[in-house]
Amino acid sequence: MRPKSRTLRNLLLIVLLAVTSLAAQDYQIRTRVDLVVVPVSVKTSEDRLVAGLQKEDFQIYENGAVQTIANFTAEPVPLSAAIIIDTGLGAKSFVKVQKTLPALAGSFSEFDEVAVYRYDNYVTKIVDFTKDRDEIGKAFDQIKEIEPLSPPIMSAPFTTPGPVINGWPIAPSIEAGRRTGIKDTKMLNDAVFMAANDLADRPKDRRRVVIVVSDGRTEGNEHSYEQTLTRLLEADVQVYAIGMDVAFLARKTSVLDDYSKDTGGDAFFLASTDALERAYAHSSEEARNQYVLGYFSSNKTPGPLPIFRQIAVKTTRPGYDVRHRQGYYQYP
Questions:
Q1: Per-residue pLDDT tens over the stretch 170-217
Q2: Which residues are 328's β-sheet partners?
Q3: Which parts of 31-84 fold into alpha helices (H)?
């Protein structure tokens, strides 16, 4: 009987070990470990990119607590770029944009994929993400064919002017093709929101960016700035804004500057054709060549809803400007 008893005990022991092993495996599968990836640009006071930094040159914080950098790379990566053109710019500025579209197309490599959008009173996606240079060229050709907005019609001396609001005529006799109507709308937020939605589906091994050429006006949008920023951060999208027709004193309070700072991108405010072409090249170069810091977050979400975690990145070398997204949403 003893051999049978030992056999039974051994069998029970094997079963117990198997159950314990399965339970441990199940626990490991269900354990949540979040790797937070943060692309970072470092620039000098002369606005030049800084290369050659190492992991030891950075410090990263989440909600004020220092984090251990687990992953670090400085390798360039291909882009998924959503190009957004404000076709409601002033006539002179829009003509400059039209003339420089070949330079914008040339700022991307053969490994990048590009989608093109336009907006003024509504938003249109002209071409979905593609690496085909011909398709991208055709999209820009459509923008080249758009007539710039005509300036408001000014009344001659000693004539009776028609009704105007904010300097724009609203009489029904205004000739076709000119801007009319009581309410002017500029769908910047909605255009950026649409692009962020589309970028969310692009491969994670690409850097997701929006490059928007705009005057920064946001009237009549369905989405607020806060809603749009949330979508950008959820989709890990950086915004590179090129501001046209923005007064000097208004640049630091422009929504374009806000989008770039909050997502870790950059903003350029300019007027000349040469500066516009340089901004295209600078945006794509900066987006492609970033330091990428990764750390494992041990924070737990307090409930069933996502929570925003604030990120801060510093360098151990003084005098550098560090750009990165302001944070991320941690999901339960």
A1: 333 333 333 333 346 799 999 999 999 999 999 999 999 999 999 999
A2: 309
A3: none
DSSP letters for 11-37? HHHHHHHHHHHHHHHHHHHH---EEEE
**Run of H or E residues at 137:** helix 133-144
Write out pLDDT tens, residues 90-149.
999 999 999 999 999 999 999 999 999 999 999 999 999 999 999 999 999 999 999 987
Q: What is the largest CA-CA distance in the chain?
A: 124
Decide: pTM greater than 0.90: no
The CATH T-level fold of domain 79-147+160-288 is: Rossmann fold (3.40.50)
Quick one: which of 192, 186, 287 has its CA closest to 231? 192
Q: Which residues contact 139 (CB under 8 A, 6 or more apart)?
A: 116, 126, 127
Domain range list for the chain? 31-74+292-330, 79-147+160-288
For residue 163, the 8-state DSSP code is P
Pairing of strands 307-315, 58-62: antiparallel
